[in-house]
Amino acid sequence: MGKNIIILFIFIITFGWVNAQDEAGSWVRKGDFGLQFTNAVFSTYQSSGNSNNANSLVGKFNYVLNWKKSKHSWDNNFNFLYGTIRTVRVVPQGTSNTYQKVFTKNGDLINLTSKYGYSLKKNLNFAILGAFQSQFTKGFKDPFASEREVISTFLAPGIVNLGAGLEYKPNDDFSIYYAPINGRMTIVRVDSLRDNYSIVNPDGINKEFGSFLSATYRKQIMTNIIYSTKIQLFTNYLKNKIDPAVNRPLSVDLQLWQHNLTFQVNKYIAATFTANMMYDEDTKFTILAQDKKNGSPVIVDGTPKKGPRFQYFHTLGVGFTYNFTNEPKK
Question: Is pLDDT larger for residue 310 or for residue 95?
Fold first, then answer.
């Protein structure tokens, strides 16, 4: 099943590309690129209680590439985000303090979707959609630790969806797609990380079958304000054959909910807000007492208790940005 999903995903992209070479069709290209810088400095500052310094740089690239001819369409949506942060933490040492510096990432996302559609009636298409999600580099449980524990990396996890269903698309800026027949693979290529993602299969791949919903929206609210969002939901129908306790049939996973809001100051300078949210029943985190970030783990039968948690990331800052679009070419 795993290899078949990957082969079919590649087929969607290839089939769409071959058909799109026909010059009689029309193209729509939209996107934005940005580099956002933030800096915070605390030097013997009463409100913060210590001295600290943090600098971060976040880059994002969102691109929409759509093609249409007669009843055929091919839509592609690419979302990339990567951020780094350099921060200093004060470490008390008796009557004096030392400063621990660390350089790590504070954001990492790869999300791709490719969809072939055939028009059944106005604004309604039969569609086949493939989606891929992962991250670029390693993520760490505690970046300040002397031996940093890796909790994620490229294809650990990696999520691939492939399904067929119906799409409602009244214009190029809004689309909602629902597939009652959808295969999903969660890939964890690092053995030591598989338990964190409830992977019990020897090949490191959890195969699921269920339904998938994907929606995208992009709106120029005002002349200098652009908002875009993407949401992807998955519901599994089946239990895992090896370990029935792993998968939870009919629970809803928030695979991704992404928001981008850009306030354009001039052609190249903008204030941007980016937020990503995720929730997966099969992704395990150490549960801390009272859910405090620096609390102690809840111990059950001598081991830390683990369970799913809502995942959230956002950035807000000012930096370089560039938006581009084109009118359909006939």
Answer: 310
Mean pLDDT of 20-40: 75
Dump pLDDT digits (tens) for 22-31. Answer: 556 788 888 8
Size of the chain, expressed as the number of residues it contains: 330
What is the per-residue pLDDT for 330? 44
pLDDT at 266 over 60: yes
Q: How far apart are the first and last CA of the chain?
A: 40
Provide the token pair at 48.
Answer: 């913060």
pTM (2 d.p.): 0.83
Q: Which residue has the tokens 């008390």?
A: 92
State the greatest distance between any 2 C-alpha atoms of the chain, in Å, as a whole number.
76
* Residue 297 near residue 12, CB atoms below 8 Å: no
Of the candidates 222, 228, 217, the one whose C-alpha atom is nearest the C-alpha of residue 265 is: 222
Query: What are the φ/ψ torsions at residue 155 (nearest 5 degrees)?
Result: 60, 25
State residue 293's pLDDT score.
Answer: 52
pLDDT beyond 60 at 329: no
Give the three-state DSSP class for 57: strand
Distances (CA, A) of 310 to 229, 253, 272, 295, 318: 18, 10, 23, 17, 27
The H or E element spanning position 16 is helix 2-20
Contact 282, 198 (CB under 8 A): yes
Work out the pLDDT band at 52, boundaries 50, 70, 90.
low
13-2-128-22 Cα dihedral, nearest 10 degrees: 20
For 232, the 3-state DSSP assignment is strand
Structure tokens at 289: 């007492």
Classify 13 as helix, strand or coil.
Answer: helix
> Please, what is the Cα angle at 41 between 147 and 50, to 5 degrees?
70
